[in-house]
Amino acid sequence: MKKKLQEYGIHVPPGNRGEISGKGVTAEFEWDGESHLTITITEKPFIVSCGAAAGKIKGFVKECHGS
Asked: Is residue 9 in a domain?
């Protein structure tokens, strides 16, 4: 998933927690190394609704689920 995010131009730090950013959105992430990934959006453009940002993230995670 990290590789795919980086291909989309989103900076992802090494490790299982940290801050990701790109496309005007910044978020904190924490992964337990197995099955639980928590993503908290901390900044987004005013014109992007929280629902739209969350929907994009959920869609991306579903897309990567099988890889």
From this structure: yes
SS (H, E, C) 2-64: HHHHHHCCCECCCCCEEEEEECCEEEEEEECCCCCEEEEEEECCCCCCHHHHHHHHHHHHHHH
In a domain, 67, yes or no: no
* Domain span at 25: 2-62
Q: Write out pLDDT tens, residues 2-32.
A: 788 888 788 888 889 999 888 788 889 998 8
Q: Which amino acid is at 55?
A: G
Domain count, the chain: 1
